[in-house]
Amino acid sequence: MLALSLVVTSQWNPPSLFAESPPASEEQARFVDHSLLIGPELPCTWPTAPFPRFQISHQRTIGQESPYNIDVLLIDGNTGTQLDVPPHSAARPELNREKSGPFGLAYTDVIEPWQFGGEACVVDVRSLLNKAPNGVSPLVTPEDVKRFEQSHRPVQFGDVVLFRSGYSDKYYRPLPEGNRFLADVLDRKVPGFPDPDPDCMDYLGKKGVLTLGTDSPSMGPVPDLAEPTHYAGLKYGMIWTEGACALDKIPETGAFYCILAPKHRGGPYSESRAFSIVGGEVPRKLIESAKAKRAVDITPTMGLDMPVVSPGVGVGTHRQVYLKIDFLYNDYLDMWHHTHLMDSMTGTHLVPPSYALPTADQHPDYSPEVRGWLEKYEQKFGPRGTSSMTAEQVPLDWTCGPIRIIDVRKLIGTTKSGSWPASPKITPQQIDDYEKEHGPLKAGDIVVFQTGFVDEHYKPGSTTLWADPLNGKSEGWPAPDAETIFALKKRGIRCVASDAPDLGGVDPASALMTYWALGSNEMVGVEFLHNLEKVPENGYFLFAALKIRDCHGTPGRALVFY
User: Fold this and answer.
1) Using only C-alpha atoms, what is the Rg of the chain?
2) Which of 328, 344, 415, 458 has its C-alpha lying 20 to 30 A from 191's C-alpha?
């Protein structure tokens, strides 16, 4: 496939490119990030016209106008580490073309959640690196896979076959040096990246393998085999990662590998986050769940007609609306390649500490109203903290772990209309009540408040999800207050999530205090979930946000394996 990206940067720091959680004991799970960092100084966009460059705009920063850092993204599915799904090459059934079939409708938003993960089978093809003429890819063949099978075991359904050449690790560098990653290949100045030939894809497809990955920028060998290789795999219903990295950080078998992508409606590919879990019992259990197809997607689908982002209160306070921008038409597939312009907290997303906290060297000039709220907050909870932790710095193990769903739906309808805009408050009492019935919360648990609000109100054109509650026309969604966040921190909780539009609620003072409490306690939020009714007990929550430099909240996808 392709690749695209651009972002505001601070100082260049090479180790942050291929992040890995600190070494752990034999019994503990260790998270390995396989995602390329997205930044303007990096070769993370597909470099040929008319593919648009990734952009981030810091639309509002903490100060008089806003107590939050608010970013806007221009991003398409060929950005950084990315996901390909069948409609990238398979045509829709009604087109009646040679490549038409049911997988022509298997867009990113309808792929079964279990297919995003499985046991990593790392096929070492480093011997192929640079073993081809300029502008030509060295080819991975069925023989390379068979050598892996002779050393380990036959690949099969439930495996994620990963081709490791070391290409991304070697060549993903700041520009202009980073032109070696992709642009120089396309200009035929240097040898191409290793990739499987169509026979290799056919071999894997016949063995039931449905998920692949490569640390090359595309799964398509240049210059002539990109489409034949794509279709050879996608016709089986395969999905795969392009632009992975750090595959040397995991064993050749035994790790649980996963790729998570924002849930755009009708996407033939998507910007993504890929990672592995190594060590202890967690990988084995997740691999078993994937093979048994035991997974639930708790991420609502984003669409142009859906209320995916806050419209604000009154006039002029709305976030960037979610837009799909077509830029290149594919006649055979009857499909437009497209990018999205959107608020960085559109749909299901991560809330890092820096969303509501200034950095240590900043002294924001809040509005008089917000200064009053800060005074009240600090009188009760102590000094509001500071943070430079933007979304790409949040460790993956903070947003993955055993899921603990606290049902607060009984709070719906407990406020009086005269008090609106108001949200029913989730208090420490709800936590105490939950623990009496289900046992104590533990460090590493992901606490999810079940309000049922998004399930009830997320409909095309709906005003009852955001606009009516924010403007006092209906009751707001249940939301935790700052005291509840501190109570969770005492229990060792790092990540708090909700199936409401956000964790703050509709009262602006209470909402800001909740986000101050989260950030000041080095906690993060995951907002805008749904479908919690389908999640059984003892599930494992997996969420990862896009790895965008200097972004104060990024979209992602949440799954539960059980």
Assistant:
1) 23
2) 328
pLDDT-derived band at 518, boundaries 50, 70, 90: very high
Collapsing DSSP to helix, strand or coil, 227 comes out as helix
Strand order in the sheet with 273-278: 30-33, 273-278, 256-260, 117-124, 159-164, 211-214, 239-242, 82-84, 269-271
Q: What is the mean pLDDT of residues 198-219?
A: 98
The predicted-structure confidence for 62-89, as pLDDT tens digits, reads as follows: 999 999 999 999 999 999 999 999 999 9
Residue 235 vs residues 33, 176, 290: alpha-carbon distances, Å: 29, 37, 21
Query: Cα–Cα distance between 39 and 43 in angstroms, integer?
Result: 8
End-to-end CA separation in angstroms for the chain = 32
pLDDT at residue 9, rounded to an integer = 27
pLDDT by residue (tens digit) across 467-510?
Answer: 999 999 999 999 999 999 999 999 999 999 999 999 999 999 99
Contact 150, 187 (CB under 8 A): no
Assign 419 to helix, strand or coil. helix
**Tokens 């794509």 appear where?**
230
- Residue 184: HSE in the Cβ half-sphere, 13 Å Cα cutoff: 17
3-state per-residue secondary structure call for 147-198: HHHHHCCCCCCCEEEEEECCHHHHHCCCCCHHHHHCHHHHCCCCECCCEECH
How many Å apart are CA 41 and CA 309, to the nearest integer?
29
Average pLDDT across the chain, whole number: 94
DSSP for 387-398, written as a single string? ----GGGS-GGG
Rounded Cα distance, 294 and 370, in Å: 46
Residue tagged 């705009």 (tokens): 57
Mean pLDDT of 298-319: 96
Instruction: Give the H/E segment covering residue 373.
Output: helix 368-381
Alpha-carbon span 137 to 155, nearest angstrom:
24
∠ Cα 426 309 477 (to 5°): 20
Q: Is this structure's pTM higher than 0.85?
A: yes
Distance from the Cα of residue 355 to its chain's centroid: 17
Picking from 103, 102, 75, 42, the residue whose alpha carbon sits closest to that of residue 270 is: 75
Strand partners, 56: 73
Whether 104 contacts 93, CB under 8 Å? yes
Residue 59: which H helix or E strand, with range?
A: strand 55-60
| pLDDT, position 2 | 33
* Cβ atoms of residues 194 and 222 within 8 Å: no
Q: Which of 456, 495, 463, 461 is nearest to 478 (CA)?
A: 456
pLDDT at 409 over 90: yes
348 Cβ contact list (under 8 Å, min separation 6): 262, 263, 299, 300, 526, 527, 528, 529, 543, 555, 556, 557, 558
The pLDDT tens digits of the residues spanning 114-168 come to 999 999 999 999 999 999 999 999 999 999 999 999 999 999 999 999 999 999 9
Burial 135-145 (b: 16+ CB within 10 A, else e): bbbbbbebebb
For the record, the structure tokens of 251 come out as 């064993």
